């Protein structure tokens, strides 16, 4: 099996010893994306919804670099600092995925890197 490390300047650089994504065997395993602006590295917005929008933009960029897309996502994991943000994040999430509804897990966490309010990870298939 050939594994490939994914990197794009259209998403923030990893803030630790990990890759934006790894592809192999027709699958894309995306690391969690925060609501960081790709060029400045600064958090976009103060709300979970605004950060979710940027996190999903970042995820879309990583998927594109990997030869995939939002419609090939099979599972996401959302980490929320506050479950009261669940409905607002769902609105943003629904906009990005439209009628496609990947399997999903949403969990509350105590805190996230860079004081983020949300982090989104995904597993996708590559486009064939």
Short description:
This protein is α+β, with helices and mostly antiparallel strands. It contains two helices and six strands. The protein is 23% helix and 28% strand.
How many distinct beta strands?
6
Per CATH, the architecture is 2-Layer Sandwich
Could you estimate the helical fraction of the residues in percent? 10-25%
CATH topology: 60s Ribosomal Protein L30, Chain: A
Rg, nearest Å: 14 Å
Instruction: Tell me the strand percentage band.
Output: 25-35%
The top-level CATH class is Alpha Beta
Biggest beta sheet attributes:
6 strands, mixed
- Tell me, rounded to a whole number, the average pLDDT: 97
Name the poorly predicted regions. Answer: none
Strand order of the largest sheet: 1-2-3-6-4-5
How far apart the termini lie comes to 17 Å
Q: Give the overall shape, derived from the CA principal axes.
A: globular
Helix segment tally = 2
| Count of distinct structural domains | 1
Order of helices and strands: EEEHEHEE
SS content category: alpha+beta
The H-level CATH homologous superfamily, spelled out, is RutC-like
Describe this structure in words.
The protein is of the alpha+beta class and about 130 residues long. It has a single domain, classed as 2-Layer Sandwich (60s Ribosomal Protein L30, Chain: A). About 25% of the residues lie in helices and about 30% in strands. The protein contains two helices and six strands. It has a six-stranded mixed β-sheet with strand order 1-2-3-6-4-5, with helices on one face. A hairpin with a 2-residue loop joins strand 2 and strand 3. Helix 1 packs parallel to helix 2. The radius of gyration is 14 Å and the shape is globular. The chain starts with a strand and ends with a strand. The model has no long low-confidence stretch (mean pLDDT about 95).
């Amino acid at each position: 099996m050939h594994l490939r490390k994914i990197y794009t300047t259209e998403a923030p650089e990893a803030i630790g010893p990990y890759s934006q994504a790894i592809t192999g065997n027709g699958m894309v395993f995306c690391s969690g994306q925060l609501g960081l602006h790709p060029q400045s590295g600064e958090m976009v917005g103060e709300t979970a919804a605004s950060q979710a929008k940027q996190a999903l933009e970042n995820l879309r960029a990583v998927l594109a670099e990997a030869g995939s897309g939002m419609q090939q996502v099979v599972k996401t994991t959302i980490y929320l600092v506050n479950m009261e943000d669940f409905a607002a994040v769902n609105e943003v999430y629904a906009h990005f995925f439209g009628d496609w509804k990947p399997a999903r897990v949403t969990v509350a966490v105590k805190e996230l890197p860079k004081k983020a309010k949300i982090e989104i990870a995904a597993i996708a298939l590559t486009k064939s």
